[in-house]
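Course assignment 3, question 2. Fill in each field.
Student: A.L.
Task: Predict the tertiary structure for the chain below.
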Amino acid sequence: MSVVAAENFWGDIVRQIGGSHVSVKSIISDPSADPHQYESDARNAADVADARVVVVNGLGYDDFMSKLLGATNHAGRVVLTVADVLHVSGADANPHLWYDIPRISEVARAIESELAAADPADKAVFATNRAAFDASLAPLLRTIDEITRKYPGAPVAYTERVPQYVLDAAGLSVKTPPGFARAIEDGNEPSPGDAQTMYDLVTQHRIRVLLYNAQATSPVTQHVQDLARRAGIPVVAVTETLPHGTASYQVWQENQLTEILRALGG
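Answer field:
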């Protein structure tokens, strides 16, 4: 069956669960692009029009999908919204749900359910694949636990809220001024006060690690990185989409978690 995912990390999870019984197309997949500024095109509309199942993130992260869905008709089409699955809502909710690694299995179960409803004959295959996917999350969860054990409450900062869910899961203490992160995420300049607070976190060595969004840099975030490197504070890049050439969602996230663990130990 044809499945469209708004982002390639959700598409990868669908691919793992659906196996050879699904044809998955992911709309946002360019690791060099800022997903917040994505504009859909006619090809995206055609893919959505043909899809039996559509997976969207929600929380305003992929609002372009609402337009595509509204402009196309498919009598049997099902739309799975990850934010609804995880019961996350609110005007200021963090939309980077794929970093909530301890709860990704809930999303996988919802995907399995929708695939099975669309293709009952292959229900057993989807269940087996989903169980394998859940098992493959174990190394990621172990790394999160290791961070929690070794560095409980360690102070860190990020330029955007991209990794916030997993940092919270690992028990790390995020010191970034909320206004700074939100301004950067929205493509705006942070207030002078928030910017200075962020700079002080680095120059006064009040954090152990700085994480930055490699897909949405600006003069301000580059300056923070430069300050961190000059101060000897480890800098870790995170991305919003699954990088090209990376085998799977699990490999991507495990690589980033390992970098965070290594940086905390540095």
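Instructor remarks: The chain is about 50% helix and 15% strand. The chain has a mean pLDDT of 95.
Grade: pending
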